[in-house]
């Protein structure tokens, strides 16, 4: 049976769309060796680039404008923020040094600074983003939506309830 022109075009378009979707599905995860830890929520992965852990925010190593947010919203002082920034950085160093990680992506692939946005999966299967929340070393970045936001909010609430890290002296 020979297909007419429109039927053949429809099948070809359908095949191309299927191929495109399959290609995108495969590209939702990548892996590489961590080559640098910048701070609690930013790393460099060899062959991939600078990666920002999606959905979380850790305090900066130095005083920053973001400190005002933590003070107003949670009554967390700058000295506590510097301490937590250092602890998050040290945890990342201990977990990521000479480590191969997997990156899982969400809808947004990059941020406004060109960093790759990803969930970072450790070799033991734990997700670094969630781990930092569970230890109270990060808060949920609420400004944007992402696939695991509800899960991350639960992890943050649990750390707050246990008064871990950032939440040690907050209500």
Topology record:
Blueprint lengths: L4 H22 L2 E9 L4 E4 L3 E5 L2 E2 L8 H9 L3 H19 L3 E5 L11 E6 L6 H7 L4 E2 L8 H13 L10
Parallel strand pairs: 3-6
Antiparallel strand pairs: 1-2, 1-5, 2-3, 4-7, 5-6
Helix pairs in contact: 4-5
Provide a brief overview of the structure.
With 171 residues, this protein is an alpha+beta fold.
Structural class: alpha+beta
Q: What is the molecular shape?
A: globular
Give the total of beta strands: 7
- Describe the biggest sheet? 5 strands, mixed, barrel
Helix content: 40-55%
Q: Low-confidence stretches at least 5 residues in length (pLDDT < 50)?
A: 16-27
Average pLDDT, all residues:
88
CATH topology category name: OB fold (Dihydrolipoamide Acetyltransferase, E2P)
Number of domains as seen in the coordinates:
1
**CATH class group:** Mainly Beta
Straight-line N-to-C gap: 74 Å
Q: Compute the CA-based radius of gyration.
A: 20 Å
Description:
The chain is α+β, with helices and mostly antiparallel strands and 171 residues long. The chain has one domain: OB fold (Dihydrolipoamide Acetyltransferase, E2P) (Beta Barrel), CATH 2.40.50.90. 41% of the residues lie in helices and 19% in strands. The strands form two sheets. The chain has a five-stranded mixed barrel. Strands 4-7 form a two-stranded antiparallel ribbon. α4 runs parallel beside α5. The radius of gyration is 20 Å and the shape is globular. The protein starts with a helix and ends in a 10-residue tail after the last helix.
